[in-house]
Specification:
Strand content: under 5%
Number of strands: 4
CATH architecture of one domain: Alpha Horseshoe
CATH topology of one domain: Serine Threonine Protein Phosphatase 5, Tetratricopeptide repeat
Structural class: mainly alpha
Distance between the termini: 182 Å
CATH class of one domain: Mainly Alpha
Strand order of the largest sheet: 1-4
Helix content: 55-70%
Radius of gyration: 56 Å
Number of helices: 9
Length: about 290
C-alpha cells in the first residue's frame, strides 16, 4: 500500500509544480502589466511636469518680449514725428508765402519797388524823369481801372522832350511806368495842337518808336504798332519819309499768328494815310503785301 501512496504524491507534486509555474507566469505577467502601467503613469506625469515647466517659460518669454515692444514704440513714434516734421515745415513755408498786391489785378506788369528809388538804375529816361518829377502827371487809382491825372494843363506843355521821353517809355516793363508812358503818349496826340507840336520833333520820335518795334516782348511790339497808327493818323503823309525804317520792323512779326491782324491793320493805316507813295515803299520791303485799294 505504501508504494501506491508515494506515486500519488509524486503525481500530485508534478501537478502542483505545473500549477506553480502557471501561477508564477501569471504573477509575472501581472507584475509586468503593473510595471508597464506604472511606467506609463510615470511617463504621463513626466509629460505633465514638462508641460507645466514649459508654460512658465513661454509666459516668461512673452513677458520678456513685452518690454521690447514697449521700448520699440517710442522709437517708432519718434520716427513718425521725424517723418512728419518735413510736412509741417512745408506747411509753415506755405503759410509764409506772400500774396500778390491788390493792384496786381488792375495790371499785368511787375510793380516797381518804391523803397529803392534813389539807388535804382532806371531802364529808360522815362522812369528816371518820372522819379525826378519831370513828368507832369500821376495815376488816378479808380475803383474799376486806372486813369491819368495831369498836374499841369497839358495844352500848355511842350512836346520836346516830353513826347520823346514817353516814346522811350514803351520799353518799360514795370508798373506804374508802363501805364504812365503809354497813357501820356495817347493823350498828348489827342490834343488840339498836337500836329503842330509833333511835326518838328517827328524824326526824334521815330527813333525810340523803331526801338519799340524791335523789342522781343510782344506787349511792347503791340504798343509800337499802336503808336505807329496814332502818329500816321496825326501827321498823315509826313510819315512816308520814315516808312523804310519802320516797315521792315513791322513786317518782322507778320507770320506770327497772334500778331498778324495787328500788323496788317498797321500797314493798311500807313497806306491809307500815305497814299501811293506809302504803298510803293511798303511793297519794296514787303513784296507780298496786298493793297487795300
Amino acid at each position: 500500500m505504501a508504494p501506491i501512496v508515494a506515486s500519488k504524491t509524486a503525481s500530485d507534486r508534478g501537478n502542483n509544480a505545473k500549477t506553480d509555474k502557471r501561477e508564477d507566469s501569471n504573477n509575472s505577467s501581472r507584475s509586468s502589466s503593473r510595471s508597464g502601467s506604472r511606467s506609463s503613469q510615470a511617463r504621463a506625469s513626466n509629460s505633465r511636469e514638462k508641460s507645466r515647466s514649459s508654460t512658465p517659460t513661454s509666459n516668461s518669454n512673452q513677458r520678456k518680449t513685452e518690454p521690447s515692444k514697449r521700448t520699440t514704440t517710442p522709437s517708432s513714434a519718434k520716427s513718425l514725428t521725424r517723418a512728419a516734421s518735413p510736412a509741417t515745415q512745408q506747411v509753415e513755408k506755405k503759410t509764409t508765402i506772400a500774396y500778390p498786391l491788390p493792384s496786381s489785378t488792375l495790371h499785368k506788369h511787375k510793380q516797381a519797388s518804391i523803397f529803392t528809388s534813389g539807388k535804382k538804375k532806371h531802364k529808360t529816361n522815362f522812369s528816371s524823369a518820372y522819379d525826378a518829377g519831370s513828368i507832369p502827371c500821376r495815376i488816378n487809382h479808380g475803383s474799376i481801372r486806372n486813369s491819368l491825372q495831369w498836374t499841369k494843363d497839358p495844352n500848355t506843355l511842350s512836346y520836346d522832350p516830353l513826347l520823346i521821353t514817353c516814346t522811350e517809355g514803351f520799353l518799360e516793363t514795370e508798373h506804374p511806368f508802363v501805364f504812365l508812358a503809354r497813357a501820356t503818349f495817347r493823350e498828348l496826340l489827342k490834343l488840339e495842337d498836337a500836329r503842330e507840336k509833333t511835326l518838328p520833333i517827328l524824326g526824334q520820335v521815330i527813333v525810340p518808336l523803331r526801338g519799340a518795334l524791335m523789342a522781343k516782348d510782344d506787349d511792347t511790339f503791340l504798343m509800337g504798332l499802336e503808336a505807329t497808327r496814332l502818329l500816321s493818323d496825326l501827321v498823315e503823309g509826313e510819315m512816308n519819309i520814315y516808312l523804310p525804317k519802320l516797315t521792315q520792323q513791322i513786317h518782322r512779326k507778320l507770320l506770327t499768328k497772334q500778331l498778324r491782324v495787328e500788323v496788317e491793320d498797321t500797314l493798311a493805316v500807313l497806306e491809307s494815310n500815305g497814299g501811293r507813295e506809302a504803298l510803293a515803299i511798303i511793297r519794296s520791303k514787303i513784296p507780298t503785301y496786298v493793297s487795300i485799294r
